[in-house]
């Protein structure tokens, strides 16, 4: 009986494994929903890695299974296997392929990080300080803050900055985020509102200025695919655009002490109208709280924002 050439079988297997891996890379559903402008970039990279990993897994495990059957010891066979040792071309081949894969993934990941705004978090080319160097007599402009209250002096230079679309612009909304054992506090410097969870309008370019009062915490929203450390003494930032209305978890992802696991909050992405009414409501609540401060109140009657307000003031993280 005539045999099908092994090279032909290998070719067919290669085509099938490639198609299967490409399909798995797009349909693995390992990641939660995408809710930020940055999420598709991260997922594109992740999907490529899943595709490559699937192909490698199938090739390696498939070969083991085929060889287990093909080269099993037959009944009565007491001979040794053929003594095969060393194969330079094969070794060069299986060293070169991972090298190319790792270099390719490395370059791709730097590209994704850069498009997310990770390489120039301060937007270095566009800050007024730099303009001041170039244009004599414009030094005053550098000291003036813009509407967002962000000046080159208080704009953190570490973290994730403006994405490709937002380059050179200041954020629509700035929120000061303070991590502490074991909670996140969100302060809106423009409106004086303080909250235990983050509220943002959908589609807005949001900048979080992160700080920590004690140890290193890490602010992570899985649905945004974004994560940034909050470091004591070193301000960091995280800029993002939420793309889907909804409520998503905020998780501390840096082991920060005994109750690290309970250091959770949530980010509520509103429509712009809903966001405005949330802000108005909380502004009124904050004013009422200031009036009531001298009178003893039952904490059960207070909203989170009201309850936290005096503590925030005491710690000096409020406005
Ligand atoms: Cu923490």
From TrEMBL:
Pfam families assigned to the protein according to its UniProt record, in alphabetical order: COX2 (PF00116), COX2_TM (PF02790)
EC number: 7.1.1.9
Segments passing through the bilayer: 7-25, 45-71, 92-110
Limits of the Cytochrome oxidase subunit II copper A binding domain: 170-281
Main location: membrane
Swiss-Prot/TrEMBL catalytic activity: 4 Fe(II)-[cytochrome c] + O2 + 8 H(+)(in) = 4 Fe(III)-[cytochrome c] + 2 H2O + 4 H(+)(out)
One cellular-component annotation, GO: plasma membrane
SUPFAM superfamilies, sorted: Cupredoxins, Cytochrome c oxidase subunit II-like, transmembrane region
Start and end residues of each Cytochrome oxidase subunit II transmembrane region profile domain: 22-120
Cofactor comment text: Binds a copper A center.
InterPro entries according to UniProt: CcO_II, CcO_II-like_C, Copper_CuA, Cupredoxin, Cyt_c_oxidase_su2_TM_dom, Cyt_c_oxidase_su2_TM_sf
Keywords: Copper, Electron transport, Membrane, Metal-binding, Respiratory chain, Translocase, Transmembrane, Transmembrane helix, Transport
GO biological process: ATP synthesis coupled electron transport
Membrane topology, record value: Multi-pass membrane protein
Required cofactor(s): Cu cation
GO molecular function (one): copper ion binding
Protein's cellular compartments: Cell membrane; Membrane
CDD domains per record: CuRO_HCO_II_like_5 (cd13919)
PANTHER family the UniProt entry points to: CYTOCHROME C OXIDASE SUBUNIT 2, CYTOCHROME C OXIDASE, SUBUNIT II
Task performed by this protein: Subunits I and II form the functional core of the enzyme complex. Electrons originating in cytochrome c are transferred via heme a and Cu(A) to the binuclear center formed by heme a3 and Cu(B).
Protein name per UniProt: Cytochrome c oxidase subunit 2
């Amino acid at each position: 009986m005539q045999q099908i050439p092994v090279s032909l079988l290998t070719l067919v297997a290669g085509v099938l494994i490639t198609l299967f891996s490409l399909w798995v890379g797009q349909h693995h559903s390992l990641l939660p929903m995408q809710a930020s402008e940055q999420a598709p970039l991260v997922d594109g990279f992740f999907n490529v890695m899943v595709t490559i990993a699937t192909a490698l897994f199938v090739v390696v495990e498939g070969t083991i299974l085929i060889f287990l059957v093909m080269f099993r010891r037959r009944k009565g066979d007491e001979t040794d296997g053929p003594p095969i040792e060393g194969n330079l071309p094969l070794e060069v081949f299986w060293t070169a392929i991972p090298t190319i894969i790792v270099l390719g993934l490395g370059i791709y990941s730097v590209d994704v990080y850069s498009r997310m705004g990770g390489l120039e978090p301060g937007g270095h080319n566009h800050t007024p300080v730099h303009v001041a160097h170039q244009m004599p007599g414009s030094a005053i402009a550098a000291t003036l803050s813009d509407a967002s209250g962000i000046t080159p002096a208080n704009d953190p230079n570490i973290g994730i900055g403006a994405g490709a679309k937002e380059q050179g612009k200041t954020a629509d909304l700035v929120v000061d985020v303070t991590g502490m054992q074991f909670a996140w506090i969100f302060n809106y410097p423009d409106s004086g509102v303080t909250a235990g969870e983050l509220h943002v309008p959908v589609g807005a370019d949001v900048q979080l200025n992160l700080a920590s009062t004690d140890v290193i915490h890490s602010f992570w929203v899985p649905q945004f695919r974004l994560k940034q450390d909050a470091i004591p003494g070193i301000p960091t930032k995280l800029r993002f655009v939420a793309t889907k209305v909804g409520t998503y978890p905020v998780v501390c992802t840096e082991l920060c002490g005994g109750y690290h696991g309970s250091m959770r909050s949530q980010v509520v992405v509103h429509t712009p109208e809903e966001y405005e009414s949330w802000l108005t409501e909380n502004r009124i609540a904050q004013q009422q709280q200031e009036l009531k401060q001298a009178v003893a109140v039952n904490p059960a009657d207070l909203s989170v924002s009201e309850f936290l307000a005096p503590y925030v003031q005491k710690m000096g993280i409020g406005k």
